[in-house]
Amino acid sequence: MADLQTIIAHAKEYGFVFPSSEVYNGLQAVYDYGQNGVQLKNNLKMLWWKAMTQLNENVVGIDSAIFMHPLIWKASGHIDGFSDPMIDNKDSKKRYRVDHLIERKAELLEAEGKKAEADKLLADMDALLAKEDFAELLQLILDTKITCEVSKTSNWTEVRQFNLMFSTEMGAVADESNKIYLRPETAQGIFVNFLNVQKTGRMKIPFGIAQIGKAFRNEIVARQFIFRMREFEQMEMQYFVRPNTEKEAYDFWKEKRMKFLQALGLPAEKLRFHDHTKLAFYANAALDIEYEFPFGFKELEGIHSRTDHDLGSHQALSKTKMQYFDEDVQEKDKQRYVPYVVETSIGADRLFLATLCQAYTEEKGVDANGVEKTRIFLKLPPALAPIKVAVIPLIRRQGLPEKAREVFEMLRYDFEATYQEKATVGQNYTRQDLIGTPLCVTIDHQTLEDNTVTVRYRDTTEQVRIAIADLPALVGKEVSVKNILEKLK
Ligand code: GAP
């Protein structure tokens, strides 16, 4: 697999991802999607949406607002608990997450063959983090002589909690009472709409609510491109179940989500489950699905069994009953309950990065003159490709452009198509390979005689001649989302 720098360069060069506000030297951990990136990301989101809502009869979607009542974040625990212990180096002014700083030291110790020392350091850290003993955490950093990677000094501030939520003011007056937050997750918009959807949709438990939307976190350590951003998109689904049936739902979604990622072309050997050993106090199971990025196995998606924590907290704070009346339960005293929730949560940007890393292919071969060449192409599943089909006249004369435009016109309503007449056909093939276009259609002199075209396949570079009349069916078959969604059965 290519290294991250190659992926970043490719993403920029071919219109997938640009650093935000680049003309002003960028904005840290914020990125913009370019003309091809937005198409790929939309296709990923569309497939997730279809996989969730179209293929599960008991899952429906919503789109809740980013701004929400501030008490929502009180109930969810984000105001009090969504923070990380941080420390600043006074010389370099660089801020670190305490656990990352200590973990880095442990890695160095291990590399020096001091495994026992590294293990003890991590165990001590875990114990102090659990107790939130910040004074002792600072002492641990000083005792183990941890230095800043920039200034190389151990001139540290105290350890402080740093809330990851962005805030702003709603209305004209800027004071504490008007303070609202940019949501750090989309999930709470689902919880507070649980009753609305259940009642208006006459949903029967178990059922799910899915949502795709922006989330914001003031991440401190954000250096792996779009892996960890300050503004990102989540695709989350909350599955509401009867208490004590959550284990079954958890196992069901765990397998289903793994299948989805594999159907998108991420290979089984690059995906793995990672069970959480430390659970939040309200959770009774949690795991990550990790993908092997160029920088190692990292979290791609989370699956969490959250009991009735969220609905229960909103019920307590809002004084609105978040209960469900279960007609299927025989015992009268058990008919009303606050449902338990199993959540699946994946970042659209992280899935985009995984897809791009997986698709990037360098293939060695020899050209027609026997010269060694490396062909670079994005081996995206055709349904995900930003452009599905490129229509190219062999030359820009003798009626070929006119005929090619006719073909383009025929395809463009159903498929993301592009018409390309500049440069040579070969250069166009290369260009389309680099953005992952699965099919190129070339119009030549024979086309004018017998209404046939050549279709060139991206992955094999194989070319076949077919009738123009058969093109829509061929393209449709190749790029259909069904090719992916069928694998979820
Ligand atoms: N509602 C649960 C929740 O938000 P999370 O593990 O904090 O759980 C879920 O986030 C997913 O969102 C992650 O697995 C990741 O894919 C994505 N995500 C989280 N923080 C992110 C960030 N700063 N940048 C990009 N994606 C992020």
What does this structure look like?
The protein has 17 helices and 23 strands. The model has no long low-confidence stretch (mean pLDDT about 95). The strands form seven sheets. It has a seven-stranded mixed beta sheet, with helices on both faces. The chain has a five-stranded mixed beta sheet with strand order 20-19-21-22-23, with helices on both faces. It has a three-stranded antiparallel beta sheet with strand order 5-4-6. The chain is globular, with a radius of gyration of 26 Å. With about 500 residues, the protein is an alpha+beta fold. The structure holds glycyl-adenosine-5'-phosphate (GAP).
Q: Give the integer mean of the pLDDT values.
A: 95
Shape: globular
Number of strands: 23
Beta-strand portion reads 25-35%
Uncertain segments are none
Question: Could you give a short account of the major beta sheet?
Answer: 7 strands, mixed
Measured between the Cα atoms of the first and last residue, the distance is 30 Å
Small molecules held by this entry = glycyl-adenosine-5'-phosphate
Number of helices: 17
Query: What is the spatial order of strands in the main beta sheet?
Result: 3-9-10-16-13-12-11
- Kindly state the percentage of residues in helix: 25-40%
Task: Provide the gyration radius in Å.
Answer: 26 Å
- SS-based structural class? alpha+beta
